[in-house]
Amino acid sequence: xxxxxxxMNLKLAAKKLVRDILDVQPGEIVxxxxxxxxxxxxxxxxARAVFGIRTKPLVMWMATLGGLGR
Amino acid sequence: MDGNSWGVxxxxxxxxxQNALSGALNNMHVWIEFNYQWILYLTVFDMVMKENRDxxxxxxxxxxxxxxxxxxxxxEIKKLAEFPGKIAEITQKGDHIGAATPAGTDIKFVWAELxxxxxAEKAExxxxxxxxxxxxxxxxxxxxxxKPKIPVVGLRESSIHVASTLERKFPIVDVGDKxxxxxxxxxxxxxxxxxxxxxxxxxxxxxxxxxxLLEESKKATGEDDVEVIILSCGNLISxxxxxQEKPGVPVLEPGPVAFKVVELLVELGVISQ
Lengths: 70, 273
Description:
The complex is a heterodimer. Chain A is 46% helix and 20% strand. Chain A has helices at residues 3-21, 40-52; strands at 29-35, 56-62.
């Protein structure tokens, strides 16, 4: 799929996540955490979707944790 | 989430600005986690869940635009939310259930537990004194005891109790390659040993199956130091005596054991409450 198409669909997916799955309400504060291996487009689209419903996003980027599994 | 994302465990706690992060998240209404090496179950996560009990949380580890579009964007959330309820509604109407999808899923199953309960109720109405649920898995045993007042006895439970009264260590020798692995029993259980025979094939080659059972029984007496053996299928009848001569320890066939337990309960006049 063309990148523009992916971004358009991603925008819709982020809206669905915020509105339909998480049921975020206007005025709520939504924290988004991500690390240096997270996909920036997915994070940013989600932050925009949060902002789009008059809600306050706070994105926190951090270094990817090292170490071995559980 | 892809195959390279394994999480890091609490050993990574010191790498996070824990107080700053938990301080911020404690003041959020919702937390969406995209971390590739996730914070879920690290100390920060525990702190936030303890302090901010009303927070909504979702873990989207390893999500990229493609997976986000496929698993969220293209899913009809309202219908998905209704789906489990619909499935429950449909499956409760029938005993024999099948499910197939265009992607190739094709499963069939039977509500064995429900059927067991119905049969137990039917037996009581017809005036039977007791019920034996005749499968070593004891499927539906506890459900079947809920309503009828007559005793309901299972093969596995009764065999294990009888074996326990011998005050010895025992193994279970199974058909179907250790179907019972992972089950928990009395501390006297020494081992669960399996043969490759499936239940429905027992009567097709009883000699071969007897030989395999004998092999496993011998191993149980030698390696597991057991003093009584339980065979794990109601179809394993009339081979116990022959088997016990060779390994030299008592062999319990669950069918006759359950029958005798039931007989005892009926003679004692025991009625379920």
